[in-house]
Amino acid sequence: MTRTAVFAPFEIVEGDRASGLVLVADHARRDLPEEYGDLGLPANEFDRHIAYDIGVEMVTRKLAALTGAPAVIAGFSRLLIDPNRGEDDPTLIRQLYDGTVVPANYPMAPEERERRLDLFYRPYHDAVGAMVASVAAASGKAPFIFSVHSFTPIFQGFVRPWHAGVLWDLDDRVAHPLIDALAADPLLIVGDNEPYDGALRGDTMYRHAIVNGFAHALLEIRQDLIADDGGAEEWAGRLAPIVDALNRRPDIHEVRQYGSRTGPLTLI
Length: 268
Known about the structure:
Layout: E1 3-4, E2 10-13, E3 21-25, E4 32-33, H1 56-67, E5 71-74, E6 96-97, E7 100-101, H2 110-139, E8 144-151, E9 154-155, E10 158-159, E11 164-167, H3 175-183, E12 190-192, H4 204-210, E13 216-222, H5 229-247
Parallel strand pairs: 1-4, 3-5, 3-8, 8-13, 11-12
Antiparallel strand pairs: 2-5, 6-7, 9-10, 11-13
């Protein structure tokens, strides 16, 4: 974990914005601003999935290099505030996560909650929104948004059998061909809306893709498969030709409103 006095809530990895593709990494880092210390937690908690998505930053950077696409990487640990939640989501700032109490998050004064939104969450989403808009302008077409995450092999005693899972809501333009392409490898077990449901109101895909009618998918990779440089390289190499092929499809760059299983669409 890195703690810095001058803290950037996001990083932009530059790429060819005319390609029409945007990569997003919500939970890539476990870093905290210096003023927050360790949130009252021992150092080993920041080696766990509760702090960040292990391996995702490496995969995203390598995938950006292979595809030439730009990427937006969140710069803060989800224990500070979770960028992949709506502002009204009760899990936006966790007080208890997978058995760990986060002392600095309880009790949470309304002023502190708003401060974290203003300093970290909103600047990150402003950066994602600006990147999506700039890619649309540079390419002259609706952008394709691809989000990279990772998950734990075991959660609350349940062994998760998947090597990867594709999360989506109602727009299946990316989800189905991505699942099919990954599942073409007989050694891979690929989940369809596993290990989580992709319909989450107010999350990153909802606010930047679904409400705008942009094609998208969120890919979850099992963290032990990408925890080192070799695994990240392998998965980026597997994904790059699939993502490139999807990005060449005309329907991927059309604005289409599918709605959401979470209810009527609301601009955020």
